[in-house]
Amino acid sequence: METILRPLTVVGGSILLTLVIGWATDLLLRKADARHPETPLWGLLRRARIPYQVMLCAALLRGSYVEAQVFPEHRATVGRVLTLLLIGSVAWLVTRIAAAVVEASYSRYAHAHAQRDPARVRRVRTQVSLIMRVVTAVVAVVAVAAMLLTFPAMRAAGASLLASAGILGIVAGVAAQSTLSNMFAGFQIAFGDMVRMGDTVVVDGEWGTVEEITLTFLAVRTWDERRITMPVSYFTSKPFENWSRGTPQMTGTVFWHLDHTAPLDLMRERLRDILRECPAWDGRDYNLTVTDTTPNTMQVRALVTAKDADDIWTVRVTVREGMIRWLADEHPYALPRVNTADAALRPSADGLHRPRRPSPDGSPRRFPEQPAKTL
């Protein structure tokens, strides 16, 4: 009977104590979150309650499994399994706590500077994201190393591994040259402020927004919801357009090909009215000018402004559509057309324009050319 009650008591007591401590800790975090709503730290720390409870349970079982006499013939194996579980749960807990602290710090910083300096907020967001990835990788490596060192064979091989670390490092560096270059490029992007999460960029002719930056690759979300994944070394070795560099304000152009009789003054007034009704226009500037002419049409260009790349696209399409609709309704003669009328005649020798009169058969009458004057 004792062989059954003792394991049940030890295991059940460990689980019950874990649940009680976890509930009490979660209650304290909820009260702290309600008492300090200005910081999200306490609410974010509640995400770590599962690894926290796993760590508590593993630690309690690791310290009491000998008295429980659970599988006494496999005591070493049970102890090693509980040790591995304890190491893994500690690494999990450390990662969750670090993520909560970093995210809370970033949230407070972004809330304080989002309106004054959004570009700096995006830069900090990029740096925080990469720092968290590095912290996670370091914790994972340390945890795996600690797990391996629990095996006697691995501890015995540690000396020989350290002796050959130099050669292994050279071999690994040569084999992972591309990966290492991408990692260093990732650090350069994060702390060199070349490109940030949320920036509007043009790479290989594709316009999009930087959605994710890691130590090895960068993801760009295009306007049609596609994702372009590129190695971060691309951005340190090739030129690209960053429309969010500096201030996000942008100036856009809209072109029309119109007839030479288009009412330019009325078009300027109509452009002003369209922009006033467009919420995406930031009110900084606008103008309308003729930039080119052809024998049949003239090219009219409108300059408009907006606060960022997304709004400038909205302003451009709104102005283009509104102006075309207004011209079609109010001034259809201004739209380009194929001219089928007779061309104006050049003046005759007496300086008068002689009208064309049809010939008796209905064909256009051709006037004889004036003889050239001789001195």
In this structure, how is the largest beta sheet organized? 5 strands, antiparallel
End-to-end gap: 142 Å
Give the C-alpha Rg.
38 Å
**In order across it, which strands form the biggest sheet?**
4-3-2-1-5
Helix content: 55-70%
In DSSP terms (H or I, runs of 4 or more residues), the helix count works out at 11
Low-confidence residue ranges: 362-375
Order of helices and strands: HHHHHHHHEEEEHEEHEEH
- In terms of DSSP E residues, the strand content is 5-15%
Structural class assignment:
alpha+beta
Name the average pLDDT.
Answer: 76
**Assembly context of the chains:** single chain
The rough form would be described as elongated
Tally the beta strands.
8
Transmembrane segments: 6-29, 50-66, 78-99, 130-151, 157-176
Region (Disordered): 345-375
Subcellular location: Membrane
Organism: Streptomyces plicatus
Would you write up a description of this structure?
The chain crosses the membrane at residues 6-29, 50-66, 78-99, 130-151, 157-176. Keywords: Membrane, Transmembrane, Transmembrane helix. It comes from Streptomyces plicatus. Pfam families: MS_channel_2nd. Residues 345-375 are annotated as: Disordered. This protein has eleven helices and eight strands. It has a five-stranded antiparallel β-sheet with strand order 4-3-2-1-5. Strands 6-8-7 form a three-stranded antiparallel β-sheet, with helices on one face. The protein has 375 residues and is α+β, with helices and mostly antiparallel strands. 56% of the residues lie in helices and 15% in strands. Among the domains are: 2-113, no CATH class; 250-334, Alpha-Beta Plaits, CATH 3.30.70. Strand 2 (206-213) and strand 3 (217-222) form a beta hairpin. Helix 1 (2-35) runs antiparallel to helix 3, helix 3 (49-68) packs antiparallel against helix 4 (75-113) and helix 10 crosses helix 11. The chain has helices at residues 2-35, 41-45, 49-68, 75-113, 118-149, 152-163, 165-175, 177-192, 233-237, 264-276, 309-330; strands at residues 200-203, 206-213, 217-222, 227-231, 241-242, 250-258, 281-293, 298-306.
